[in-house]
Design goal:
19 helices, five-stranded mixed beta sheet, about 475 residues, alpha/beta
């Protein structure tokens, strides 16, 4: 329980996390109109200055603060900031006349409170992630002991989590400022300890290191991100940390070996679709016999012009009227297009359709195709991740695109992205700089340059995503004007 020296307004708290004592003292101080600058806070008692009574709260005084403040203060009081008790009392004092204070994000005190809460929550998370128990004793004497060094006073606040997680075993967590002990029935919070009080290692650590070494994924290693989530200060107490330097050093070699072992064939359900759609490979002579889009589409089913056909489920040919005035050309089919056998039916296709509608362009009256007709991907577990076609693959597939344009004879072609522009113009084009431009080819065909709608999907910030969508809509409105020109 907190004690108050009435002469100098010195409040003494039982412990670093004595929130009940702080709350009681703060209530009495505030209702007696004692300002924050007249109060000092201290942890621990001294026999010769211990007071017997606290001033009672004035019976006619009302102290109303948001419930949210009590919850946030209970978190912030676990922070290691030596001035936290006085700081929280200053917030309480301000809330008496500024009831909306907690909602003012620009206020320096509120920013400080938020930073303290965030630091405490992060420390709590790190404790849950990086506590490593070591077994001591056998049989009835068996128990598990861990050493952890938190930045803040979080052991007591975090103890209930470990009770729920490890209810069936007896354990003790030792830390510099406090310790938590669970005997299977009762949780006790005790004084701090030293690292030498914890066991050095146990028989299970070799097994744990083997497990960690086997789940380490070198292909996804990002050293800075790893050290942000697992700061080096925790490494000295983690048995697996001794492996980390060697695992990082050998990551490139291990990733190459892992990639070499990865499957190069589609998943079973893709293979079934593939078996249904792949006909006998066609010869180059057969290509020349196609005089209509349906005939060309049928011949393209057996295309082996580049190696991409081996892993793709099926050829994804263009779709739309044979006399379309406008042809839209994308990069390549995605996962959903590869399974459906139709272009622009996945997430990017939905964005494309919606914006065409907003621009008053009827997709049923335009022809939509891709520069590359097979899905190029990298397998990651059960997922197939899009991989950009290279120049050779673009060139090999250009025959089909040229044949489509020859049969359709459009007035305008829209290049959706850099791959489409490269296929149509025969050279690399800086889409960002030339976006919105129209280039006329030597054969007289007009090519309008813009982004691929999948670019919009990759933008994380909602405001930026909306702005990019609006820019693409303006591009499509230009296309609508050019359709009539």
């Amino acid at each position: 329980m907190a004690q108050l020296d009435l002469a100098i307004h010195l409040v003494r708290l039982d412990s670093e996390t004595d929130f009940a004592g702080w709350r009681d003292a703060a209530r009495r101080l505030a209702t007696n109109d004692i300002p924050p600058e007249d109060v000092a806070w201290q942890v621990g008692f001294e026999d010769d200055v211990r007071n017997s009574d606290l001033p009672a709260a004035k019976p006619d005084a009302r102290l109303v603060v948001p419930r949210d403040f009590i919850e946030r203060a209970e978190t912030a009081i676990c922070h290691c900031d030596l001035e936290r008790f006085g700081f929280l009392y200053r917030l309480l004092w301000r809330l008496r006349t500024e009831p909306k204070l907690l909602s003012i994000a620009t206020d320096p005190d509120i920013r400080r409170l938020e930073a303290m809460e965030k630091a405490v929550r992060r420390d709590i998370h790190k404790m849950r992630a990086f506590v490593r128990f070591r077994r001591i004793g056998e049989g009835a004497d068996e128990r598990y002991v861990a050493w952890f060094e938190p930045e803040h006073f979080i052991v007591e606040r975090n103890a209930d989590f470990f009770v729920r997680r490890f209810t069936g075993m007896r354990w003790t967590i030792l830390a510099p400022h406090a310790s938590a002990d669970w005997d299977g029935e009762r949780l006790a919070i005790g004084p701090g300890a030293a690292k030498r009080d914890a066991p050095a290692e146990d028989d299970a650590e070799a097994l744990w290191q083997t497990y960690f070494e086997n789940i380490f994924n070198p292909a996804r290693l990002k050293v800075k991100a790893m050290q942000k989530e697992m700061p080096k200060k925790y490494w000295r107490n983690l048995p697996e940390a001794s492996l980390i330097p060697d695992l990082i050093a050998g990551a490139d070699k291990a990733a190459s070996a892992m990639i070499a072992r990865m499957p190069t064939t589609p998943a079973p359900h893709h293979a079934k679709v593939q078996a249904k759609h792949w006909p006998t490979p066609q010869t180059a002579d057969a290509d020349e016999t196609a005089d209509t889009i349906p005939e060309l589409r049928e011949v393209a089913k057996g295309c082996h012009r580049c190696p991409l056909w081996r892993d793709a489920t099926q050829t994804v040919f263009g779709e739309g009227p044979e006399n379309a005035d406008v042809v839209f050309v994308g990069e390549q089919p995605g996962d959903q297009e590869d399974l459906a056998g139709k272009p622009f039916v996945g997430p990017a296709g939905k964005v494309f359709d919606a914006i065409l509608g907003d621009a008053a362009i009827d997709r049923r009256k335009v022809y939509v195709t891709n520069a590359v007709k097979h899905f190029k991907f990298e397998p990651r577990g059960k997922r197939r991740i899009h991989s950009k076609p290279n120049a050779g693959e673009i060139q090999a597939c250009r025959w089909w695109l040229d044949k489509e344009l020859e049969l359709i004879k459009p007035n305008l072609v829209v290049a959706l992205g850099a791959t489409a522009a490269q296929s149509l113009l025969g050279r690399a084009v800086p889409i960002t700089r030339m976006r919105g431009d129209m280039v006329e080819r030597e054969d007289g065909l007009r090519v309008f340059l813009t982004i691929h709608p999948s670019f919009i999907l990759r933008i994380r910030e909602q405001a930026d995503k909306e702005a990019e969508r609006e820019r693409f809509l303006q591009d499509m409105r230009k296309v609508r004007e050019l359709m009539g020109a």
